[in-house]
Amino acid sequence: MNAIIISALMGVLMMFTSIITSNKQVIKNVALIALLFLLVGNIVDTYNIFSIKVDTKGMLSFGKFGLYFNTLIIAATTIFVLLSGNEIVKTGDYAADYFALIFFVLCGIAILSSFNNLLMMFLGVEIMSIPLYILTGSAKKNLKSNEASLKYFLMGAFSTGIMLMGIALMYGATGSFGIQAIKLVDNELSFTKVMQTPLLEVIGLLLVYAAMLFKVSAAPFHFWAPDVYDGAPSAFASFMATIVKAAGFIALINLFFLKAVELHYLWKMVTVLVIITTLIIGNITAVFQQSVKRMLAYSSIAHAGFMMFALYAQNDIAKEGILIYTVAYSLATIGLFAILAKMDDYSLEGYNGMAKTQPLLAFANAIFLLSLAGIPLTVGFFAKYYMLAAVLKFSGGFGLFLTITGVVFAAVSVYYYFRVLQAMYFKEGDAKVADVTVGFKLGLMLCIAAIIFFGIFPDVLLAWFYF
Amino acid sequence: MNLVHILFWFLSALTLFSALMVILSKNPVHSVLWLILVFFAISGHYVLLNAQFLAIVNLIVYAGAIMVLFLFVIMLLNLNKETEPKKNVWMKLAGTIAGGCFLISVTNVIYNAQTSSAELVNKTTLMGKGSIGLIENLGKTLFTDYVIPFEISSVLFLSAMVGAVIIGKKK
Questions:
Q1: Residues in B 116-155 with any Cβ partner in A closer than 8 A
Q2: Are the Cβ atoms of B171 and A93 closer than 8 angstroms?
Q3: How many angstroms separate the CA atoms of A255 and A252, rounded?
Q4: pTM score of the predicted model
Q5: Under DSSP, is residue A369 helix (H, G, I), strand (E, B) or coil?
Q6: Alpha-carbon dihedral angle through residues B129, B130, B133, B135, given to the nearest 10 degrees
Q7: Smallest CA–CA distance from B166 into chain A, residue
Q8: Could you give the ipTM of this predicted complex?
Q9: Which of A203, A341, A446, B9 has its CA 20 to 30 A from that of A378?
Q10: Domain limits of chain B?
Q11: Which fold has domain B3-130?
Q12: What is the separation of C-alpha A378 from the centre of its chain, rounded to a whole number of angstroms?
């Protein structure tokens, strides 16, 4: 409960900061301190040192997995503010309010990692999404940003409607909002079993599933992602592509296998279809992109496909895997977007010869790209490894098939990540990069160190989880 | 047959009549006005069932907000005889199917209730008896069982307000 309460309060605090001062550096530093405070608040909650106890009537339940996930998310947000803080305050006149909205998003994420009830899930998803519509359109003079915001808002409103319809149908079928009441849990492959389950519940769960897939931009519902990530200011695009996407997955995992029991076998077929289409569309389309920002948007769709593996496997390795994947993907993508925001030209040519002009930034980019591609010695490798291991451990079904597909598309992804590497190191040109501060460089070094450290000792991440 | 029952029959007749007029009147603006009358009559039914909260919310949300939106849309569309869109067969078919589905489900509910007509007569009005729709009970539920979602939704509204201000301001 700490994370939910503190993040909401910190959001209010940020709003008041804008009354007191209009100095953007001060606002940024206040936000950083508030984030650290939130981080500590959540950690003491995780280890039962101090936690605000509220009788939630069974609507929220705080497991260690959810709390640890909160910690990772808040830490990732802190790194995001460290690296992109200057970009955030530069987007418009309302620097403090942007941070307030970011805190509200974190509040929604804390609800999504602990909900026990479809009502709370709906609230969490909405608290997470509504600030994002605004952050997407925060560059008010930029037409592309306006377009992206409107597109995201309309699509998001539709998906909310679909989710509400699903929740209503499930309420009709089970007579309760609790996710324990969902009865589609038998792990047998039998057609009669499926036919016996109430139709309302099946349709309801499908609708909720579809709406959540929209939020994580998995394949049949991915169409909004490239335009929105491309149009949004780079800083907020990275926030949406990493932290919010991981939160969508935690909601799916919460709904489908942490608290409810395993899903019916036939439901896994739906998941397999989604995974395959997501991997195909994300990876193949990313190959043809000329703009690095757009390529990252498609690569985020592809990574959503990989994270879906956890939803298919539904075992302990998958739980550990999603934690590592969150860290790996967030660190690398936040770093890439932070550097991208400093670039003059977002196209591949804009990166030409970056190794000569900005050796440190080029090196950081290289490490981030290697991690995203899943090359050993970076944490991205272990993220993919855990996902594939989880699917292989889930006996029978499509395990082997999925693993092979995953490996093939990981190989495809190497191609488009290495195109950026090639542009930076082997092509002539003078990449124009805005001046970077020492703090920015230190932040990048921190990211690189974390990626390599967790790439060699991934157990450390999990040790914190079990300790 | 006391006053409440007379009121019930009057309201029922009014509801059915104005609902029919919604479909039958040629002018769309008149349709909307009749629809407002339907909502008022239904609110009257809610009051008879001792559900004041539902009655008030029905008036505010449907008769107030949604109907105004309807009127706006109709005015903006500027419907008249010349520009009246042709209704094709498929549209009519879809409408019939959708309406039929609704009819089936409503009949099903009444059929499954398995109450004899004598019992049904006693349940038409619950003036002073029923307690489900009272504001008092709603408040109690809202502040005991549902206090967490109730409080947390304030964060949602706060963020929406912040957003509205950011987007709405000139600069």
A1: 144-149, 152-153, 155
A2: yes
A3: 5
A4: 0.89
A5: helix
A6: 40
A7: A94
A8: 0.88
A9: A341
A10: 3-130, 134-171
A11: Four Helix Bundle (Hemerythrin (Met), subunit A) (1.20.120)
A12: 19
